[in-house]
User: Which sequence fits this backbone?
């Protein structure tokens, strides 16, 4: 490896020897192409015409009235596929194409990354296999069907609780056996180096656009940026452009699940301890011995016991602050944005909104907050329906 | 070794005088439960095991196929943990002074405290600790504490490891090189990987460190082919762990099938 892939002491590449050559190949390809003129031009074109960038920064008037301060939504939910995930899958997919790989594999929790990978597999005419836990397959059946319509094979993973962690285990095992022709399109800023760096790079467009839009539309930078954190890709994407703006508070909202006290949650940075999983050192939800916990959250996309290494460093340095929102608060926020703005947020993104609801009465009325609305909630309607049946 | 227990060096040198490869069975400690696991390991020793490769069960064994994954789950469900694994290792060493290599995922070591883990397990009778998810690039995180604890080092080489890396790996290895026969995770395979012979030959030219081969070896004739390719040891895991799974309701049959299979492998690599 040319680089250590460390964020402070976090990150690295804790993988079996068999994966080292292929990670080196990926690192080499990334640094060869990411600033390459043709690569950059092709990605820019596809981001615009295929994915729908730039996305708007929208002033949510009625939602703002409710919480008592000014809320702007960075509308990643309007992207093709319904989430920020396509930024990364387009970037990595193009990288795979430039590397001459013929097969894409990916893990998925909510199915958003799986779908975004399946779309890109279709776009570039590559064979695509998506590894997905059986629990997630059941609760995200619409996305499963969409992936199949895009021509991807969805491989059910039974291990553990059948969620994202198990899907990653199985995708890594498959990759181990097919390293020569397969590109592992990793979905978040986690995993072994170079993935945290690669994924961040392809998600920085969120932050860059947001910063420019704030200056153009509001004439100043916001007081606060809020984003949900599972692995942390949309959060690192939007945070990245504001890291040097010390007056801009950065808040990451993790999945508080049933409650922190119950232990049934996925709030890794809030309640975890440093450990090693899936190739990286990061905060980790684990028992005293180091066995990794099964997590729980209403949102499949945040249901993960580890977290991106750069977020760990941002927590330790205090540059970003991490909090947790419980399922019940998240569902309230989902309903509030739907009713006040006619925008159904993904349950993942609704975690960020839940934090805003919690800030009601605590922030002054001229406070400007930008929320990364990382995805849309169509995929979650049946879950919300089950948890919160509508009255006639 | 400071505490006078049998070393890899002694075993490989004895075997090399006999022109034989080492028989190295792998088990998940505590599979399916503490007592049966101990009985299985004793059976393997009686059947002619020269070295033992043992794993402490982990929640997320990314380098393992379904057979070992299920063994990890069985062992954890029966209450196996790091402390009890140490206890079981002590009992094995009471039965016979046989070299033991631990095969671990890093997080369990990291949480225990790397230096303390190596010191405590060496004291319990372990000769080396191979960390499945730690590559040679980060070897220094474990090589120094391992050596000062009196442990040998064992690292993996895979069919896609380039010669430059092979040299680095060999230079940092004092025990043996765990040579992975194929691109993939652990698990029985019908056919022996085509890559094995060439890989063993390449390594033999590069280094005098003993070469042991594992992954996918499931028949006496596989073991024989690996031994005649010049390997110093044959590691067999999934095949015998599969015999545990198959006979969970009949301990007598489980032990006799493991004994018979290992006996067959032993004679296949004896000539």
Assistant:
């Amino acid at each position: 490896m040319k680089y250590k892939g460390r964020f402070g002491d976090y990150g690295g590449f804790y993988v079996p020897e068999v994966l080292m050559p292929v990670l080196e190949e990926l690192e080499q390809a990334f640094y060869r192409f990411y600033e390459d003129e043709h690569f950059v031009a092709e990605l820019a074109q596809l981001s615009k015409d295929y994915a729908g960038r730039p996305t708007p920064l929208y002033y949510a008037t009625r939602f703002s009235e409710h919480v008592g301060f000014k809320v702007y939504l960075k509308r990643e939910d309007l992207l093709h596929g319904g989430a920020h995930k396509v930024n990364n899958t387009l970037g990595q997919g193009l990288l795979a194409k430039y590397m001459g790989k013929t097969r894409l594999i990916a893990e998925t929790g909510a199915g958003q990354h799986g779908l975004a990978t399946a779309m890109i597999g279709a776009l570039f005419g590559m064979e695509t296999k998506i590894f997905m836990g059986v629990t997630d397959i059941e609760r995200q059946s619409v996305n499963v069907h969409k992936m199949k319509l895009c021509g991807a094979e969805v491989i059910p993973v039974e291990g553990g609780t059948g969620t994202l962690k198990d899907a990653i285990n199985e995708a890594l095992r498959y990759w181990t056996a097919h390293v020569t022709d397969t590109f592992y399109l990793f979905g978040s800023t986690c995993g072994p180096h170079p993935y945290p760096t690669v994924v961040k790079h392809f998600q920085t467009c969120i932050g860059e656009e947001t910063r420019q839009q704030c200056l153009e539309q509001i004439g100043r930078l916001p007081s606060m940026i809020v984003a949900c954190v599972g692995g942390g890709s949309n959060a690192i994407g939007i945070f990245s452009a504001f890291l040097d703006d010390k007056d801009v508070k950065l808040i990451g909202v993790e999945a508080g699940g049933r409650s922190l006290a119950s232990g049934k949650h996925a709030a890794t940075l809030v309640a975890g301890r440093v450990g090693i999983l899936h190739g990286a050192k990061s905060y980790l939800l684990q028992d005293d011995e180091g066995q990794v916990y099964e997590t729980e959250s209403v949102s499949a996309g945040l249901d993960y016991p580890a977290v991106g290494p750069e977020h760990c460093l941002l927590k330790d340095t205090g540059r970003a602050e991490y909090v947790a929102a419980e399922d019940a608060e998240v569902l309230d926020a989902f309903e509030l944005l739907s009713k006040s703005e006619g925008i159904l947020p993904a349950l993942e993104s609704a975690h960020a909104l839940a934090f805003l609801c919690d800030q009601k009465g605590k922030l002054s009325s001229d406070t400007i907050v930008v929320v990364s609305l990382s995805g849309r909630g169509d995929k979650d309607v049946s879950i919300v329906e089950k948890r919160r049946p509508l009255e006639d | 070794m400071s505490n006078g227990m049998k070393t890899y060096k002694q075993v490989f040198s004895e075997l090399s005088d006999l022109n034989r490869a080492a028989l190295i069975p792998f088990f998940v400690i505590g599979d399916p439960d503490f007592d049966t696991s101990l009985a299985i390991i004793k059976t393997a020793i009686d059947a002619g095991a020269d070295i033992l490769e043992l794993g402490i069960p982990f929640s997320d064994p990314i380098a393992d196929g379904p057979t070992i994954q299920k063994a990890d789950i069985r062992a954890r469900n029966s209450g196996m943990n790091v402390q009890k694994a140490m206890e079981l290792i002590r009992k094995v060493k009471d039965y016979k002074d046989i070299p033991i290599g631990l095969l671990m995922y890093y997080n369990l070591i990291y949480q225990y405290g790397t230096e303390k883990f190596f010191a405590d397990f060496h004291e319990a009778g372990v000769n080396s600790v191979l960390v499945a998810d730690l590559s040679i690039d980060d070897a220094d995180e474990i090589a120094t504490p391992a050596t000062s604890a009196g442990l040998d080092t064992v690292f993996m080489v895979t069919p896609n490891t380039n010669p430059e890396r092979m040299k680095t790996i060999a230079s940092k290895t004092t025990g043996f090189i765990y040579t992975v026969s194929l691109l993939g995770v652990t698990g029985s395979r019908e056919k022996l990987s085509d890559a094995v012979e060439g890989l063993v030959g390449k390594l033999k030219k590069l280094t005098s460190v003993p070469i042991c081969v594992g992954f996918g070896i499931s028949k006496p004739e596989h073991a024989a082919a690996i031994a005649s390719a010049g390997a110093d040891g044959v590691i067999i895991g999934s095949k015998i762990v599969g015999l545990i799974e198959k006979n969970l309701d009949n301990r007598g049959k489980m032990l006799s099938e493991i004994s018979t299979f290992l006996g067959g492998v032993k004679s296949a690599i004896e000539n």
In short: Chain B has a mean pLDDT of 95. The beta strands of chain B are 22-28, 52-55, 100-104, 128-131, 155-157, 177-180, 211-214, 233-236. The first helix of chain B runs from residue 8 to 17. The two ends of chain B are 30 Å apart (CA to CA).
